[in-house]
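Hallway conversation turned thread

IA: we were arguing at lunch whether anyone had actually written out Lysophospholipase D GDPD3 end to end. Turns out nobody had. So, for the record, here is the sequence (335 residues) and right after it the structure tokens. Reply here if something looks off.
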Amino acid sequence: MFPSLYYLVPVLGGYAVTSYYLLKNPHVLHKKKRLPFYCRHISHRGGAGERIENTLEAFDNAVANQTHLLELDCQLTKDGQVVVSHDQNLNRQTGHDVNIRDVTYWELPLYKNTLEVTFFPGHVSSGSDQRMPLLEEVFQRYPDMPINVEIKEDNNELIKKVSDLVRRYHRTNMTIWASMSDRIMKKCQAENPDMPIMFTPRRGLILLLLYYTGLLPFVPLRESVVEAYMPSLINRTYFPHNRLMSNPLLVSLQDKLFMQKGLFQHLKERGIQVYLWVLNQDSDYQRALDYGVTGIMTDFPSKLKAFLQRYEEEQRTSGGTQHDVTGDGVQRNRH
């Protein structure tokens, strides 16, 4: 009755088998990306739960707790200085309703004595360092530390100056371009195409579409890093501004679609590292590792360090094989 099915069924079956084989063996079609760093422990804004976010004191604390990657944000001042700050408007961070672009570096107000942790409401951080550092200071202070630099504004001068600093301090292979905007990311790539880049949210949706249609194993990917929130955090420790994003049914659907071991494993086999943010509880750390992610981004570097030490010890005593990432950021296999 439907003679075309005699042809269609074998074709679809062959496609499914080929896709599955290549999903498990991506090296057949793709050369594995080889970043010079492998990150398990990532400090969000330098560890915003333990010290004032994005300060040198926060970064020092993260490094002391054996972080493998510092995550930070950049803005440009009126006098053209690249400063490390998450917000453009400083009311939340300093109590002063001013924009960074409207003041010179020396006119920047100091941080408040305490700040609420954005991704862990009800918890506050404090510290003795209340100054916003220059990105150049961070590069000088941590010459061998991989750093994830998020460009917060569509500003050509900012992008060029960040790229110039990366080149000046010979950090091209160990500094990640990060942005939530496709437009900004394209400009970052054009300015310095040799730096590794993350998936933007739109590219992340395309990644999921490719995975569920079976096309992912056939498609080359320019990105080296996935940085995504773990959906189960929504309405618990992460409260998105978009009300649609916080719908319980949509959150559950996002979690089922994204938290896929097969997807994460395929990406890792292609040399693409998978980081989940912002995880601040042991149960979330454990869930992320159970699903096989590469790295965990946290506001609490010392808490994550302690968890990973316990986790690695349990893996050793249970006789399993694991990837042990030591404080120097080098991946080693343990049996």
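OS: looked through it. The radius of gyration is 21 Å.
IA: good, adding that to the notes. Confidence is low (pLDDT under 50) at residues 322-335.
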